[in-house]
Structures are given as C-alpha cells and as structure tokens.
Amino acid sequence: MTQRAMASGPTSPVGLHPEWGPFGVPLFDAPEAQALKRVGVIDIGSNSVRLVVFDGAARSPAYFYNEKILCGLGAGFAQTGRLNPEGRVRALAALRRFAALTRGMGVAPLLTVATAAVRDAEDGPAFRAEVQAETGLDIRIVDGAEEARLSAQGVLVGWPGAEGLICDIGGSSMELAQLTGDGRVGTRKTSDLGPLKLMGIKGGKKAVRTHIKARVGELASHFDTKPKRLFLVGGSWRAIARVDMERRGYPLKVLHEYRMKPKAILDTIKFIAKTDPDALRSRTGTSAERMRLVPLASEVLKRLVRELRPQEVAISSYGIREGLLYEQMTPALRQRDPLIEAARHAEASSARMPGFGRALYYFVEPLFPRARPEKRRLIRAACLLHDVSWRAHPDYRAEVCFDNATRANLGGMTHAERVFLGLALLHRYKGNRANTSFDEALLALLPAAKVTEAEILGRAMRFGAMFTVEKPTDHGALRYRPQRHELILTLKTEQGRALFGEVTEARFKALAGALGAEPIVEGGA
C-alpha cells in the first residue's frame, strides 16, 4: 500500500446533502406520522374477513397484526342474492374478535370497510346493522369505483409514481383502475368477474367463458391497450403467481413485486389446467378455499392479458387495506420513498449508532460518482441498514443481513434490488461469500456486474464502519480513480491517523482489491 504525506486541512462537517432532497429529515417522528403509528383496517370481502394493524414507519407499511378468516360471505350469492348463512355467522364471530383485539391494542383510527358481497346482497344492510349493534364497528360500504380507487392507492404505497393499470380481483367483483404515473388515479371500472359470482353462471364452461370474454372486452374498451404494467391485486392472483414461481423454479418466494411476462402467464394457466389441484396446493402452500377459485380466476386473467396486452405484469401484495392507510397520509408523507423511510425507521430503532448511516453514505459516495438515482437510493438504504442486524450471532450475521433484505416486507424494491441490497449487507459483515449458507441461486436474479457492485458497496461499508463510529468524512475522504486503478484515502486529522489501525488498513486493502485498484493513503505519515 502506497502512503503519501499531506498537510492536514480543516474538517468537513457532515451537513444536509442536497441530493437527499426530501429525505434529509426523517418524517416518521413528525406529528403527522405519529398519528398513523397504529392504524387498524378491517376488510370484509366476499371471500375473507381480515384485520390488519399497521405500525411503525408510516410511509412503509409495517404489519403489527394480521389475521384472516375465509368466511365465504359471497358464496352462493349468484343463486340467492343474499349473504351465505354460514359465512355470515363466521364473519360476525370474526368481527366480534377483531373488535375486542383492537380495543386491547389501542388502535386508532380503526377503519372498517365492506365490498361487493355486503354492498350487493339483499340482506347487506341488515348485516351491517347487526355488526354495529354487537361490536360497535361502523362498516363503510364502498362501491366498485371507490374500491378500485382504494386498491390503486394501495399500489401507490409500494410503487410511488406507478404507471399502468391495476386489476383487483375479489370473490364477487373485479376492478380496473388507471395509474397515471404522477400519483393520481384515473379511470375506474368495476365488474362481476369475481370467481364466486362466476360459479353461479349456468350453462357450463362455455357459458362462463362467453361471459368473461364479453365483460373483459367491455372493461378494456375504457382503457388504453398495451399499458406499461398491469398490477395484480388480490388473493386469487397471488395464488396464480405462486404456481408460476413453482413452474419456473423461481428462487425468491416473495410475491410483492414478482413480475411476469404475458406469455409466461398464459403458459402457467395451461399448467394449472392440466395439473391436479391437490398437487398444486401441496407444492405452493395454497389453501383449499383459495385453490377452489383459481381455475375461474385463471380464465379471467387469460382474457385480460389477451385484451389489454400489457408489456409486463406485476404482483402487488398491497391493495385496499394499504390504500386506506394511504388515505390517512398527508401529501408530504405520500411523497416519501417507502424504502428509505423504512430503512430510516429500522436504523432509528435497531442500530447501535442511529444516524451513522447517513454519514457512512457520504463517506462511500465518491466510489459511485456516475451512479443513477435508482442506484443511489439503494446505496442510501444499504448505509442506513448496515448495522440494524448487529444483535444476530456473529457466525450468522452476514446471512441474517442477506435474508432480512431479500425477504423483508418492504415496498419500493424490485426482486433484483432486494438481492443487490442483501449482497451488499452480507459483504458489510463478511469479506467473501465462502462458507455462507445463503441461497446462491438468488444471484441469478442479478447481472454479474451488479453482483460485483454489491460486493464493492459492502466492502466500502465494512471499511467505513470500522474506520470511525461517527462522521468519517471529518477524518478521512475516499477518491477513486478508475482510469489509474487507484483508490486513495486521505487522512485529514490527527484523530483520523490514529483511527487508521491494522484492521482498518486490512479492510481498506480489501476494498481496493474489490475495485481492482492500488490502495494509497495520503496524510498517513
């Protein structure tokens, strides 16, 4: 390693970096975010009744509590026009329990909504009155257009600025809504294409397919074809996506942001038609109640893909419940990056030195001078998360970091970005991947060049975190000269020179090695 003498200069304080823009000040401690610290949503659907309690980083949903009962309120509706009697009893019991649970949790606000089954059923008003009398829950009945809007807002929770169409399928209805790319929801339409409704059509498979074709054609006429992306919301779509993952041998079993091409979807629908449902259930972990709806949902999806001809299809685990959370957010909160806000919240609650992540970002930033904004946000997130898993056993800390990043319930990340972030955090704690137990198959989701970049970022964080525990840019600065194959560390203060010990030097050399550069120290003598 080359050393160059250099006179020490003034320290450079870590201030607000202009590129952080609106991410400069954490918002989760602000009053408008604290007001959303524990929001409860009860969603009474045609197939399930679910309670979700959101907690923590308001911009990125953290699921404090999540319970679902498959009541089948809409079963048999097409024949009777009324709520399923058994489903009604089960739903009322579930709502009694949910009301008691939320009182015990101190949930406020608590939002209770009902969709197609209750709004369309002859005895829907009586059910609503019974629920209010027995539980105190005031059910908000949402019409189809409102359901489409709320589901679209749920997609925006995970994808700020999303552009394309969202399609939300429930038991009794299906909604389409346009996302304009600027945070707004455009045209919204609803239909009777829920699988429970389709089960009531007489005339066999041919009659069902004729009905689906007519309804989808009418829906599609209100929207532009070939949308940039079709976002799928709903349990039946997620069940189909699980089958697609299984058929393809896809290595990352995270449904949110799972992407499929139209041809792959059509191939999977053929696979579903010729495969025993019990075998599919066993291989994908899908419930019998859900698998019962999959064949009809597949027919609807096949027609949607053929009519709309989307460029790409993406699964969203966020829907009407997250849309109701979005409804409670201020405009300032909605504009925040969910990944960065979640990372900030994790650092504040779990890191040894909260606040150091930002300082670490400034220190390693010179290594990535030409990084595009989408890469810079991943670097920021990695720096904020670099130490949140420090309590894990040292022998497994690197793998825990990787697993936390790739399997975390986070929005605002593609699957490839999850793997990039996980690799960077793995290399933050371990110089190489030898003798680690993480799934190597996941590397197939990243180009080789990105794998190398993640390793460089991890080694940079590993060096920066060892160099000093506060404001590393006060005591040293990194410069990378790729044309000359040089990595230069400038030690700017006496304290910086004292901090550059044997272990620190070894990590600096390892970083230079990852870059294929000569390690040079200035001001070290």
Secondary-structure topology with pairs:
Elements: E1 2-4, H1 31-34, E2 38-44, E3 49-55, E4 63-69, H2 77-80, H3 85-105, E5 110-114, H4 116-120, H5 124-135, E6 140-141, H6 144-158, E7 163-169, E8 174-180, E9 185-191, H7 195-198, H8 204-220, E10 230-233, H9 235-248, E11 259-260, H10 262-274, H11 277-284, H12 288-291, H13 294-308, E12 313-316, H14 320-328, H15 331-334, H16 338-350, H17 356-364, H18 373-385, H19 397-407, H20 415-429, H21 448-467, H22 472-475, E13 476-481, E14 486-491, H23 494-499, H24 502-515, E15 518-522
Parallel strand pairs: 1-15, 2-5, 5-6, 7-10, 10-12, 14-15
Antiparallel strand pairs: 2-3, 3-4, 7-8, 8-9, 11-12, 13-14
Helix pairs in contact: 3-5, 6-14, 8-13, 9-10, 9-13, 10-13, 16-18, 17-18, 17-21, 18-20, 19-20, 20-21, 21-24
Oligomeric state as shown: single chain
Number of strands: 15
- Helix/strand-derived category reads alpha/beta
Give the termini distance in whole angstroms. 13 Å
How many H/I helices?
24
Principal-axes shape call: elongated
The averaged pLDDT comes out at 90
Summarize this, please?
With 525 residues, the chain is of the alpha/beta class. The chain contains 24 helices and 15 strands.
Task: Tell me what the structure shows.
With 525 residues, the protein is an alpha/beta fold. Helices cover 48% and strands 15% of the residues. The strands form 3 sheets. Strands 9-8-7-10-12-11 form a 6-stranded mixed beta sheet, sandwiched between helices. The longest helix has 21 residues, at 85-105. The protein is elongated.
